[in-house]
Amino acid sequence: MPPDSPALIDSHAHIQGAEFAADREDVLGRARAAGVAKIVVVGGAGELASNEAALALAASDDGLFATVGMHPHDAKDVSEADLDRLKQLAADPKVVAVGETGLDFYYDHSPRDLQKKIFARFIHMARETKLPLIVHDRDAHIEIAELLRTEGGGALRGVIHCFTGNYEAARTFLDLGFYISFSGILTFKNAEPLREAARRSPLDRLLVETDSPYLAPVPRRGKRNEPAFVLHVAEMLAAVRNAAVGEIADATRRNTEALFGI
Ligand SMILES: [Zn+2]
Ligand SMILES: [Zn+2]
Fold first, then answer.
1. CA–CA distance, 65 with 80 (Å, rounded to integer)
2. Over 112-139, what HEC string results?
3. Which helix (H) or strand (E) holds 95?
4. Ligand 1 center–CA 2 separation, angstroms
5. What spacing in Å lies between the alpha carbon of 208 and ligand 2's midpoint?
6. In which band, very low, low, confident or very high, does the pLDDT at 46 lie, cut at 50, 70 and 90?
């Protein structure tokens, strides 16, 4: 990393997948060059093996950390054996969170009642392992807040990743003690309610992420996303809050380190 550029953390990236098989070392090199000091490699997007792959990748590099979970899209396919396996993996010191998990009522790839049931199981896993929770929320703010309250036992920590709501929704999660993570969506033209949420939320609760390979920020929109592009998210967050990029980088890095203990 260049000595005078701010150190950032990409708090959510799926770089263990096939999209990066051909050039992962180059991707990691570009991230370092852009000032990305740490990357949280998130399991559970796609198949169960994405969790093992996240952990294997994290084990290979001091700046990489892993999480274990299953995406709400796949809730219908999660077995008891899968949950047992994930709990085993969660005991590895390189695993820093349970997730991603949550509810996606936009795509509805799994029935909603099953999504809720599996999300509740991951909430319990976070409580048992004392790990923070990484929550995927698409058009399900109210149901997620309710499950965090009823199943969380008051002791949950975590983040709403790739937040897409307005300030009112952010406030609900902030009041539950959660962090809010902003992705490349913050740079999209029609995201004004989201930018308002980013402007009004307290700085000590904000994270930045890429959700690579998805959701590349402007000016990379439509391309494969990669952790180096988290700088564009931090720049937009700085512009929205009328702050220096260095200040945003420092704050979001400290917040991410505090949440995940990294
Ligand atoms: Zn997600
Ligand atoms: Zn994700």
1. 25
2. HHHHHHHHHHHHHHHHHHCCCEEEEEEC
3. strand 95-104
4. 30
5. 13
6. confident
Return the closest-CA partner of residue 100 out of 132, 125, 75, 67. 67
Per the document, the length of the chain is 262
Whole-angstrom distance between the N-terminal and C-terminal Cα of the chain?
18
What mean pLDDT, rounded, does the chain reach?
Answer: 95
Residue type, 41: V
- Report the alpha-carbon distance of residue 156 to residue 251 in Å, rounded: 22
d(CA 151, CA 259): 20
- Nearest CA among 255, 252, 260 for reference residue 234: 252
Once rounded to an integer, what is the mean pLDDT over residues 136-141? 97
How many angstroms does the Cα of residue 247 sit away from the middle of ligand 1?
A: 26
